[in-house]
Amino acid sequence: MELLSNPAVIGFFVFFGLLALNAPVFVALGGATLFTMVVLEAAPLSMMPFVVSSSLDSFTLLATPLFIIAGNLMTRTGVAARLVSLTEIVFGRMPGGLALTTLVTGCVLGSMSGSNIATVAALSFLIGAMANSGYPRAFAVAVVAAGCTFGVVIPPSISFIIYGVITETSIPKLFAAGVMPGLLMLVMLGGYTVIVSVVKGYRPADIERSWPIFFKALREAFWGLMAPVIILGGIYSGVFTATEAAAVAVVYIIIVDRLVYHQIRWQDMPEVFYQSGKTIGVIGMMIAMSAVFAWVLQTQGVAQLLDQMLHAVSGGSRVVILLVMQFIIFLSGMFLEPIAAMYLLVPLFKPTLMAIDMDLIQFGAAMTVNLSLAHLTPPVGVGLFLAAQMGNVSFAKAAKWAIPFVLCEIVVVLLTTFVPAVAMTLPNLLK
C-alpha cells in the first residue's frame, strides 16, 4: 500500500515504538523525525532548525507560557479551597453533592488555571472527603480525574491557543466555541453523577447552609472568580489580545494575592517560576518536535494520501469522514499529549476539512473536547493516573470507574461535531 510505504508513515511506527519504550513524547517525536530525515532521507536535515525556529516564533504562542505561570500562581493562592466551600454550599445538599461539588469546582478552577494536572492536584483532598462520606474510593478518584478535563475546553485554554496558531484561526472565536461544549460536559458528567448517586444511595454532603454563610463564601472566592471574567472580558471587548490577556492574568493574580489572600511569599516566586519553566520547557520542546515531524508528513504528501483514504473508506460521506477523524483523535489521545496530537493531526486533516466544508472553529471545539479525554483514557491517562496515585487506588480500578465519564464526554464530542449550534452560537455573535 502506498500509504504504508511512505517514509513519514514509517516514521510514525518508529515514534510509537519509542513511546512503547517509555521515551518522553518530545524525545519520541524528535527520534522519529531524525530517523525519517536521516535514515530514510525524507527531507534535508538542514531544514530542521528553520522549522523549529518558525514554530516557536509566534506572538500568539507567547500566551502559553504566561497562562502556565498564571495557573501555577493561582493554585498557590488557596482559591481551590475557597471555591470548594462556595460550590459545596450551592450543590452539597443535592444527591451526590460532594461529587457534584468536585466537578463544578474542577470546571471553574480548570478555566482559571488552564492546567488539568494542576486541577487534579488542587482537588485531590476531596478524594478522602468523598470516601469518608460513603463514596467508593475508586469512584471518588474517577470524579476528581473527570473534573480535570474541563481545563482544556473552557477558556482561557492553552489547547485553543495552539490550535489557533496551527490553523491561523481566531483565538477569541475559539475561546467562545469552547464555552457551550464545556458547560455541556459539566451537565452530562453532573447528570450521570446525580443518577448514580440516587441509584447507589450516596448521601448528600452534611453542611450548614444559610444566606450569611453563602455570601461569606462568595466574598472569599470573589477575587479568584473575577480572573476569567477580566481575561475574557478584556479579549472580547477588544481591550487586549489573548497574549496580552495572559500577561494581565499574571499581574492580576499577583496583585490580588498581595492585597487579599496573602498566600504567596516573595521568596516563593523563584520556585513558582522554576516549576512553570519546567512545564514551559517540555511544552516548547513538544511544539518544536511536533512541528518538524508535521512538516515532514506534509512534505511526503501524507495529508493528500490520508484525504484519498478517507474518501475511499467513507464513499465521500461527510458524516463518516468526521466520525473516522474523531476516532483517530480519540486513539491518538490515548497515547499523546493534546498539544502533540494537534500538531500532528491538524495539518493532516485540514485539506479534507476544507474539502468537506467543515468550519475549522467548530472542528477545533470538537477536537479539543475529544482530546480532553486523553487525561482519562489508558494507557497514558495522566489526570486519572495522578488522581489514582493521590487516592491510593490502582490505575486499573480507577479506569473501570472512569468509563461512564468517558462515554458522557464522547456524546459531547459527537454533539459538538454534528450540531453546529453547540460550538458556533457564541462565535457567531462576535464580529
How does this model look, in words?
This protein is mainly alpha-helical. The protein has helices spanning 7-20, 25-39, 48-56, 63-75, 79-91, 97-113, 116-123, 125-132, 137-147, 158-167, 171-200, 211-236, 242-261, 269-299, 302-314, 318-333, 338-355, 360-372, 382-391, 395-418, 420-424. The longest helix has 31 residues, at 269-299. The mean pLDDT is 85.
Give a short summary of the structure.
This protein has about 425 residues and is mainly α. It is built from 21 helices and no strands.
How large is the share of residues in beta strands? under 5%
Helix vs. strand class:
mainly alpha
Uncertain regions spanning at least 5 consecutive residues: none
Q: Radius of gyration in whole Å, from Cα?
A: 22 Å
- Biggest pleated-sheet summary: none
Overall shape: globular
Give the mean pLDDT. 85
Element-level helix/strand string: HHHHHHHHHHHHHHHHHHHHH
Count helical runs: 21
Distance from first to last alpha carbon: 47 Å
Number of strands: 0
Helix content range of the residues, please?
over 70%
Question: What attributes characterize this protein structure?
Answer:
mainly alpha
What layout of secondary structure does this protein have?
Elements: H1 7-20, H2 25-39, H3 48-56, H4 63-75, H5 79-91, H6 97-113, H7 116-123, H8 125-132, H9 137-147, H10 158-167, H11 171-200, H12 211-236, H13 242-261, H14 269-299, H15 302-314, H16 318-333, H17 338-355, H18 360-372, H19 382-391, H20 395-418, H21 420-424
Helix pairs in contact: 1-2, 2-14, 3-14, 4-13, 4-14, 5-6, 5-12, 6-7, 6-9, 6-11, 7-19, 8-9, 9-19, 9-20, 10-11, 10-17, 10-18, 11-18, 11-20, 12-13, 14-17, 15-16, 15-17, 16-17, 16-18, 16-20, 17-18, 18-20, 19-20
